[in-house]
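fyi for ur records
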Amino acid sequence: MRFVIVVLCCMCLCACVGRREVREDYRDALGKEAAPSKSSRTVIAFLVDGLSIELLQQELDSGRLPNLQRFFLSGQSPFYKARTVFPSLTYPAIASLLTESTVDQNGIYGNTIRVGKDVFDLSSFNEYAHLNQLISGHNVFQRLGAKGYRTVSLDYAFHAGATAHTELADIKAGLSIEGQDYAYVDDKTIDSLSILLKKTLPAYWPDFVFIHLVGVDFMSHDRGPDDKKVAAYLEHLDTRLGEIFQTVYKTESQRQVVSLLTADHGFDVPITTTADIVTPILKVDERIHTINEGRFVSLFFPSDWPQFKRLGLMSVLAQDPSVDVSALVEADGAMDLQSAHIAARVSTAPARVCASGWSLSVQTLGPTLATAPAWECDNTLSPATNSLFYPDFVGNMARYFRAAHHPDAIVISKPGVAYTKTYRGQHGGPTPREMYVPLLFHGAKLRESAGIPALSELLHFL
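which gave:
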C-alpha cells in the first residue's frame, strides 16, 4: 500500500484550500437544529494496518504498550484473533470489514483489479472515487445511515456514505509518506479523532467511528516486519492512543463506548529472495495479462487458450522453485490447486442449505484419483479439507475465484520470496502470519461460540 501520487494531487488540488477538520464536517452535516444521536452508544473501530499478532503480543508481554494493555486487556478481557481475507492485502481486507462481506460479494479481490481491459490500482489516490463506487450501497456507513445513525470515517480511502470523513487535503501528509515520516500522518488522524470527541457533546457523538492508522504497515514494508523500529513505532501509537482512551474513560458515565482494535493483515516472514515469475509466463505467450502484487501474481489468459493448455502451464509453474501454490479456475468453476507436493481438484456448486450459499468437494490427485468426499459447505469445512495447503485456504480460493472479474489463475510465492524488489516486508499470501490478525475489545466480548471470526463478521453486532 503506497500513495504514489498523493503529493502531486495534493499540490494541484489543495494549494489554495485550508484543511478542514472532520469535526467541522460532522457538525455541518448535523445542522444547527440537530437532535442528539439516535443511540446512546458509540462504537469505535481502530484498524492498525499491518499489525501482526506476533508484534502486538511481543510488545504487550514486554510491558511497552501500557495504554493498550489497560484499555483493552484489563480484568478478564481476552486477546482474540480474527481472520482476514485472501488475498491478505489492505484493500480487500478493509473492504471486507466495512462492506461486511467477502471478496466474492464485494468484488475487491486485490489492491489492483482488472475489469475487462481496464486495470485499477485501488491504492492510488486517483482511484479512490472508483473504490467508493465499488462499496457504495453495501457498507456499514450506509447500513447505519439508513437507520438514522451517524458515522465518521477517519480513512483517506474508504468513506462512501459516512456522515463525515477525512479529506486528503494536506500536502505535508503526502510528503511525509513519501519521506517515510509516518508518525505525522497517523498523528493527524488521531488528532482528528481527539478533536471530534472533545469538541462534540457526548450526546451528539457519532454512533460509529472507523479510524485507520497506516504507519505500522508502511514501516514494515520499508524495514521488514521484525525490525525494532516497527516495534518502537507501535509504542508511539500506544502513547498517542492513550489520549483517546482517556477521553473515553471520562465519557463512559454519560455514554456507552464500545471499542475494537484489529488489523487488515499480518506480514509474511522477512523477504530473503526475489524472483521473476512474470518473464517466463510472458515468454510462453506475451498476450497473457499479469498483475504482480509482490506476494503473488494473477494471470488472465487469452480467450483462445484451451483448458488443457492453461492447466499445462500452471503445472509447470507449480514446479518453479519460487512457487508455493498455483491455482487455476475452470469454466465450470472447479479449481485446480497444485504445489510441488500436493495437487487437488475442487468442485464448487450453489447450495441453499449452506449459509454461504455454496458447497465444494475436494479430490486429491496422485498416482490414482482419490475418491471425492461428500459435498461440504464452504464456510464450515471439515478439518481435513480446511487444512489442505494452508488453514482456510480451500474456502478462500473458492471465494476468490467467485469474485467479479476474477483472474483465471494465480501463483503464490513461497514464504520469504517476493516477485518484486520494492519492499523488505510483504503480505498478501495464505500463511497464518498473514491471515490471522489480533482482535481486542473494550466494552464488549465475543460469544463463546464465535471461534476465530472473519473480518466480514466483526461489525455485524452494530
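The first strand starts at residue 41 and ends at 48. thats all i got for now
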